[in-house]
What does this fold into?
Amino acid sequence: MRNIMVTGGAGFIGSAFVRHMVKTYPHYNIITFDKLTYAGNLENLLTVKDAPNHSFAQGDIADREAVGATIEAHQIDTIVNFAAETHVDRSILDPDAFLRTNVFGVYVLLEQARSAGVGRFLHVSTDEVYGDVSEGYSVESDPFLPNSPYAAAKASGELMVRSYHVTYGMDTVVTRGSNTYGVYQYPEKLIPLFITEALEDRPLPVYGDGMQIRDWLYVDDHARGVDVVLHHGASGEAYNLAGEELRYNIDIVRQLLALLGKPESLIRYVPDRPGHDRRYAMDASKARALGWKRQHTLETGLPLTVEWYQNNAWWWRKIKTGEYLEYFKQQYAARLASARDQV
It folds into this structure.
């Protein structure tokens, strides 16, 4: 392992992984490959922009020529794939982009990696492939039961990875992460959306009764988990990277408001989204057995996250314009118009 291509490395979790790898392994060459869609942002990589062991190549994982040229130019021997369309709400509005990137794009990456003789291929997946988990905790051998176009596309891409391991003998590993939060997260997801809206004293659209349960993982812990699996995961295996901190969404919202010193009167209960899973929960014993250990709990990670958004308005204010505002209007305007301030 010497020349590592990190696809989607300018996104939220991908950039955290790139920053971690560049600083932790100066003897590795880290090549960030990113299409720079709305969620990809080179400002996420400012702290490693001039590092001698980091370089950037712009491209789409669904573009065979761009992927192949980057692999050849940098003599890539390892690929870590974070590149994906990730937002469930957007997948409901427009599934097409999710199939192109999360399924076809994964296929293109696998094909180019196989033909170039790339060694290890790590694919970053999600707990949402397991679907709604009414009780207990998902383990890696559980069946896939995805309930949104996003989750179905991620499950499909993951099955492609498995097939290339079984059929062609490729050295593949998969990580499945739980709900990840932290610095540099695009402000359409729950935590950064509500922090930035609350900072401007705007109403917070909580889906349904807010009693959906999610398992929260701080982004740097997620990045370290991918690192551990990359180096120590068994070929052909999948590993859950779970925060193992389950909370109701409404409790997260209230905790954020308390940290910001904002009133709970900002909360608005809005009509739920279609196919909204009620509960996610994973068992991370398998990853812990490799040596992975979380360094943050919600009690430490949420304050760090809130403080970062408070101190870096320059980053998110530029994002919350143009296309973002059009998406927000499409997703929430009608819902907020019929909102309630209590369940």
